[in-house]
Design brief:
The protein is an all-alpha fold and 150 residues long. The protein has 6 helices and no strands.
Length: 150
């Protein structure tokens, strides 16, 4: 495989490797802040947050939501590039998976005994589901042009 084959396809469009990497990186950069802000707004609705709170939410959301963002990016990229399937069902399925992954990640980061994910209040799953769904839909919409072959 030549160097130009990695960067561009035969018709001048991005190769599959670069499209895959672009989708995953886009999810890693955009998903955590969106998921963190939506989750914070749903859980603690104190009105419009101050700028300092918003910055803190975005910074800490990368620690909590990065694994689900990576999972979402890889699932979206594989579905779009390998299976050529880029429908609305992909973000819905990814949001369902992230709903389980985010509380598990929080439980791993929290000190103390291992978390019991079955006995987590249902309200927490709803918050994470809505936040993951909003983040997934926004990222899916932003990366649709990488999914298509020009």
């Amino acid at each position: 495989m030549t160097r130009t084959a990695l960067f561009a396809g035969k018709d001048g469009s991005l190769s599959a490797v670069w499209r895959f990497a672009s989708i995953v990186v886009s999810f890693l950069l955009v998903w955590p802040p969106i998921c963190g802000i939506v989750g914070w707004w749903m859980k603690f609705d104190f009105g419009p947050p101050l700028l300092a709170w918003m910055v803190a939410i975005v910074i800490y959301s990368y620690a909590v939501c990065a694994p689900s963002a990576l999972l979402a990016g890889i699932v979206h990229a594989v579905a779009a590039i390998s299976f050529r399937h880029n429908s609305i069902l992909v973000p819905l399925a990814v949001a369902a998976g992230a709903t389980i992954l985010i509380p598990a990640q929080i439980g791993v980061l929290a000190p103390g005994p291992a978390p019991d994910l079955i006995n987590v209040p249902a309200e927490s799953y709803v918050v994470f589901l809505v936040a993951s769904l909003v983040a997934s839909l926004i990222c899916w919409r932003l990366t649709r042009r990488f999914a298509r072959v020009a």
